[in-house]
Amino acid sequence: MESGRYQADVTGPAGAPAGTHGLPSVVRLPGRERDQVRDDHNGFVTALAVRARRLAGRSVPPSWLDQLEACRTGPAGFGFWPAGERPSWAPDVGGDVDDTAIMTLELWHAGRLSDRAAIRISCLGVAAHRVVRPRQPGPAWIVPGAFATWHRKVGGGQLVDCTVGANALALLATMGLLRLPGCAETVTTIERAVAWAGTSAWRAAAMTPFYSSALEFSLALRHAVSAGCLPLGSVAELADGLAASWGVADPAAPNAVVCSSPYATTTWHSPALQADRAASALPPG
Questions:
Q1: Distance from the first to the final alpha carbon of the chain
Q2: Stated pTM of the model
Q3: Is residue 22 part of a domain?
Q4: Is residue 177 in some structural domain?
Q5: 148 is in which domain, residue-wise?
Q6: Pairwise CA distance, residues 17 & 39, whole Å
Q7: What is the spatial distance between Cα 88 and Cα 74, in angstroms, rounded to a whole number?
């Protein structure tokens, strides 16, 4: 596992934002007359930027990694915001599989987590959270045992998100844990979801309820395959072929939706993330 690791540039790269702990984003909240727009600083957007820089061989500001560490929710979990920085309008949902998978992987690559710690988090904070009984009526493509989204039930049940599944598989592949229960079920779930979506843009959005743009799904699939989850190779190629029909945006488009509340009620955008991705020589998958 050691071969893919790097050490963050402790001086920070030229042009790194001064006096900030991560990349800023904008959140659009639904309103009665028009959407409300607010500034937001969360660890999730920063984690995606860290991933993009790692894949492109670019240095990462230590303050970005500090922000990821501050999102720790317990011994085996990470959440969307650093501790104590959740906005007053946001519900407290605790840790989740997606943030835990993405942040654990990047902190391990940066040398901020040991092999033992990363494997422990992978097992307890990702692989242990599976959907035993998909709620009905619900998507027919969900395979019982696939990875869930939250560390606890939210709103009476668990939503399965294929982008979350791809991010979880990227971590587990890197840690050499693809034989754990849940991995094969998640691969099959993603394969079935893409086949179900076909060329339909609305179906593609439905298989990733927390990512209203199919762009992040496509990038997450590529990243998982590059991390060693080879069983996703065929579906990643299929998704790339369907990208045009799904309306996948330019990765550098400043107003692209990065993530959302379920089915895009509230959306996050980050021109800073997209600009940083554009500066990378490789796609931010």
A1: 20
A2: 0.90
A3: no
A4: yes
A5: 39-277
A6: 16
A7: 21
